Amino acid sequence: MKVGCIGLGDIAQKAYLPVLALQPGIELHLRTRTPATLHRVGDSLHLPHDQRHPDLDTLLAQDLDAAFVHAPTAAHPEIVTRLLEAGVPTYVDKPLAYQLADSERLVRLAEERNVSLMVGFNRRYAPGYVQCADHPRELILMQKNRAGRPEEPRRMILDDFIHVADTLRFLVPGPVDDVTIRARVEGGLLHHVVLQLAGDGFTALGVMNRLSGSAEEILEVSGQDTKRQVCNLAEIIDHKGQPTVRRRGDWVPVARQRGIEQAALAFLDAVRAGKVLSARDALATHELCERVVAAVRERPVAL
Fold it and tell me: What is the pTM for the complete model shown?
């Protein structure tokens, strides 16, 4: 199986390439516009020079079976379009695009061409979060905070808060019939945002504070007088009387802890099986984030 990796930044080098390089039967092809990075990463993986590509045309000429896109978000629409038009099953980092119209177009194109398109919402595969899906979920609370990093609203929401929105959508136990959004913006920068999703018998609350004093990610699900808490995707605490703590094993890779390995392998397994993956549900998360952007910018939001 010929698999392309487009973009060789931190996420590719730290999370995806260590997984892909260990998979049997994969011929890995790299593409980046930076020659020094291309050769440094290629050398580290002991790849021959004909598996290193400085442009997309030479990569596509390899007749790829699948591709992973880890390029900057602004480049996603052009790259993903080329891959889908060539019939290449594509896995792309979130978000698909900064503009909802571009995301909608890419999903339509994948459906028209009957080609797999998967968006890398790795928290849907993270073991701690998957275990929360088996817990009573009358109340869901997720915080993903950072220190000293207020940002332009669209970038912050699509690059980072999208994980919160998607995790809430993944965990809610039924249809959402009410959406509430609150935020604080100063000088054009988004300081914090709060998203509430509610339905019959449940409330889900997502919070991001970019001036919180610390970087942390905490998920809590509770119901039927029990609570499960996941701290930084690594530590699971069950509360029913005395708390029970389960920590990540010392030898568990970070990519597995964060669900990246599982997401990548699920994509590859689907490609091998000839199963076409749809990004329609991922698009619903992008649509929700667009509503958050609109509310933050004080434009009318249809609820």
Answer: 0.93
